[in-house]
Amino acid sequence: MKTGISAVLAATVMVCTACSSQISAEDGMTGLSNKEKAVALLNSIESGDQQAISYVDPNQYIQHNLAVGDGLAGFGKVLQALPEGSAKVDVKRAFQDGNYVFTHTDYNFFGPKVGFDVFRFENGRIVEHWDNLAAKTAANPSGRTQLDGPTEVTDLAQTEPNKRLVADFVDAILIKGDYAQLGRFIDGEDTDYLQHNSAIADGLAGLSRAMKAMADQGIEMTYTENHIILGEGNFVLSVSEGKFAGQHVSFYDLFRVANHKIVEHWDVIEPIPAKKQWKNSNGKFGF
């Protein structure tokens, strides 16, 4: 494993050394989709695949994980710090929306984690990366985990309407708190809305109980701004910011949509550190 990571680091150094050189046309003609390239790059964290590094543009790569230094050098430094043999990557879901690819992944990355990653491509290469990570937890009150559930992309013709539905939901319900409109987005039976948040059971009833429990404990959750809505077919990702339990956080919410209603939800909430702790100056968002 350490040999594989060392190979990736060596490739990183070589690519960075050649930053001033022209990227050859052949490098961009791999025959892989952007989605496949993003998944390959994630898998390289475990496998040490050197080819995957070539899918990143070393001249432009911008990092928005605030715990990682900018560029390929920052990525390589994190790989070097991983305990030997510890890295595991299992991409459960991958989607493409224009120049963006977003993934939902089961990690062992400095401990068991669940993560969403977003990659932006230009000319077939990755030029920008965002993510949200959280520790893995036990199943929620309905027995669902942070990662299980459907993975198949369907209803491609409904991508844009589904994105508009989720954008409206985020604005009306999550940001403005107009809960009287919930019926526009989610039907009322527990089986109509499957929940993967670790602390919340299925259905609007489960959501209501969880919100009451938080209120009873003085825990507030507020969405203040949505930064981007990405989707492919029946899956839509919303990236927002706000506050949770007094902390400034990033909300990544993945929704599955069927028949013009939201029917399933996964999420990762990650605290945003104080600016003095950032390892790069790119910010958490900036889409």
Automatic annotation (TrEMBL):
Gene3D superfamilies: 3.10.450.50
Signal peptide range: 1-25
Taxonomy, superkingdom: Bacteria
InterPro entries in alphabetical order: NTF2-like_dom_sf
Keywords, in A-Z order: Signal
Descriptive protein name: SnoaL-like domain-containing protein
